[in-house]
Structures are given as C-alpha cells and as structure tokens.
Amino acid sequence: MPKPNPWPKPDTRSLNAFYGDPAKGEVAPQLVKLDVRGIGLRYDGKPVSSINVHRKCAESLGHVLEEVSKLAPTHSWVLQQYAGVYNHRPMRGGTRWSLHAYGAAIDLAPGTNGLHTHWPTRSTMPLEVMECFAAEGWLSLGATISRDAMHAQASQ
Predict the structure, then answer these.
(1) Which of 11, 106, 111, 139 is the most buried (most CB within 10 A)?
(2) Closest CA to 62 of 71, 74, 50, 80
(3) How far, in Å, CA of 36 to CA of 58, rounded?
(4) Within-domain flag for 3
(5) What is the rounded average pLDDT of the residues 46-71?
(6) Residue 2 above 70 pLDDT?
C-alpha cells in the first residue's frame, strides 16, 4: 500500500517553500550523502557508494533503492544504469528549476527510458520499479505522463 504523498506540489512556489530556492543557494546546504553501498548502483560501469540528495527525501529514496535492489536479478540492470540525482539546472527545454536542482529527483536507465521514449510501448522501465517509487509517494514520470520513465521525483 502506498504511503500518503508527503511531497510538495510541483509548482515553483511549493517546491521552494518545501526544499528551498535553488536560485538563492538554499538547496545545496540541505543536501546529504546517502550511502548506497551494497545496493548495486553503478555510474558508467563503476560502483557508486553515495549520492547527494535533499535531506527531506533521502530516507525515502534509500527505501526505494533498497526495494528496487530486492527485484534482482530480474531488474538489477536498472540500478546498474544510474544517471544522477542532484544537478543544479533548469528543466530540459525550460526555465523553471528541475527537480534535480532540489535534490529531489533521480534518473535510472536513461538509455532506453529517455525524455521522449513512450512508456510502456518503447520504454523498458519495469512497472515493478515504478511501483517501488509509488510506494514511497514518488512520481515516476513513465507512469504519470507516459514518457521519461528514467525520471522519478519527490513531488505530487
């Protein structure tokens, strides 16, 4: 059963009130290093030991990644294609801050689950992985907007 969604709405005002304003440098001091050793996260083929994530969603993301790791060996390939959490940048093709700039989004397996790849017809993101995110109240964009299945975010 999913937990009630504790995350803010995805508009700038709500995100800034909850996570801090990236433009004012309020997010970076709230980032924590989440220990992911033993989960199987890999970046460019190399093991990842920690990731920078906003303190308010770090524990939740840790639970999600642990649950995804339990889906191994069937879906372990998703964790082996980690593509990042915190990135101080605007949304692709836009001017609003990305959820990555808040340290509240993660990308997994971008090669076959990209921004314009339709889920479920062309994208390869397993439904079971998206369900792990949903159980913690995270939005998986593949399930929410039928594309960009690599992306999950801690927002409503």
Answers:
(1) 106
(2) 50
(3) 11
(4) no
(5) 97
(6) no
